[in-house]
Design goal:
Layout: E1 16-18, E2 25-27, E3 45-46, E4 53-54, H1 58-80, H2 90-115, H3 120-137
Antiparallel strand pairs: 1-2, 3-4
Helix pairs in contact: 1-2, 1-3
Main location: membrane
GO cellular component, one term: plasma membrane
Organism: Coffea arabica (Arabian coffee)
Amino acid sequence: MMAGMNDSSHMHGMGAMNNGTGGGMSMMPHRHMMMHMTFFWGKNAEILFSGWPGYDNLGMYVLALVIVFVLTVVVEWLSACKFIKESSNNVAAGLVQTLMYGIRIGLAYMVMLAVMSFNAGVFLVAVAGHALGFFFFGSRAFNPSSGTGKTSDLPPLSC
């Protein structure tokens, strides 16, 4: 056990908190849902934000799934975008690439955090969104040049 660590540090979200006096505990009520550490099915999940989509609210859960799906499709679209012209100024092109890269990575991390809710529905829509986005923007089905040379301003995402 690490020095300075007591049992109260393991009780985050369980209703107990260290009151900062070195040993006393005070009970504070928490209204948090249980944090899952394994995949589960159901609409009662917290995705990205505390309390969202809420408890026993099917409409908000479906909205959360749609948002995760759209985010994954946008990540794939950004991965395949070609905005910069070959004759562009290198500094300007580099700034545009950097901005696009930052947006893509930020959205990809949001999707990752949503999947970390361990909700099976969120996981499935994230995979489906990436697959459909790749089909439309990255595969040869709609972009015949995808197998030949550079097709995007950004490097491919690596897993």
